[in-house]
Design a protein that fits this description.
The chain is of the alpha+beta class. Helices cover about 35% and strands about 15% of the residues. The chain has 6 helices and 5 strands. The protein has helices at about 5-15, 30-35, 60-70, 105-120, 140-150, 175-180, and strands at about 50-55, 90-95, 125, 130, 155-165. Strands 1, 2, 3, 4 and 5 form a 5-stranded antiparallel beta sheet that branches. Bound molecules: flavin mononucleotide. Flavin mononucleotide binds near residues 129 and 131.
């Protein structure tokens, strides 16, 4: 094997797909902890490590998250109804404490979520990243705080249902590499 790169890493990255159908199998606590642990290794602005993760398993809270997400879904994305998330054995809500985020809570949260998604793929589970939060709509953040008991200094960043896949999404058509590279200038 070429020692200059890890084949496993590229396989994980290239095989990751959003999974929206989950089996009934529960996620063992050890696996869940391993997935969340990987977030600690992500880069963060000024190494603030501002992440907080809420693990939602109760049906009632799942239902409230579904309603919340569907309510805030823009018209353009109505096909993305969030009902599927309640079938996931665990919904992870990645949040960032603004006091440790150095004005970069969204970026800090999204990069941690990316680490999580790749760990999920690596361990044979499936997940989808759903975002609903931005500064243009602070009421969204307030509502999520109410549902999940999140303190005022902490912002929710994304909602990630996780479970064992009950579907295998087809290979995704990618844009061509040469279409997105710009040498020296755009
Ligand atoms: C910022 C962001 C927001 C997303 N929001 C949603 C969402 O609200 N609902 C959903 O079902 N999928 C959502 N997705 C998943 C995308 O639909 C998915 O990543 C995309 O179709 C590419 O497919 P893949 O993840 O299988 O490669 C989101 C992904 C990103 C990165």
């Amino acid at each position: 094997m070429n020692k200059d790169y890890s084949k496993d890493f590229f396989e994980v990255v290239k095989s990751r797909r959003s999974v929206r159908m989950f089996s009934d199998k529960q996620i063992p606590k050890k696996i869940l902890d391993t997935l969340i642990d990987i977030i600690r290794y992500a880069p963060s602005s000024l190494n603030g490590q501002p992440w907080e993760v809420i693990v939602v398993t109760e049906e009632e809270t799942k239902e409230r998250l579904v309603s919340f997400k569907n309510q805030w879904c823009p018209n353009l994305k109505k096909e993305y109804r969030a009902d599927f998330i309640k079938k996931a054995p665990a919904i992870l809500v990645v949040c960032c404490d603004r006091e440790r985020s150095y004005d970069r809570w969204l970026e800090n949260g999204v990069i941690a979520a990316t680490y999580l998604l790749l760990a999920v793929t690596s361990l044979g589970l499936g997940a989808t990243m759903l975002t609903a939060f931005n500064l243009q709509r602070p009421e969204q953040i307030l509502e999520a705080r109410r549902i999940l008991g999140i303190p005022g200094t902490v912002n929710p960043v994304c909602i990630i249902p996780v479970g064992y896949p009950a579907e295998k999404p087809a290979v995704k058509k990618l844009r061509k590499l040469e279409d997105l590279i710009h040498h020296e200038k755009y």
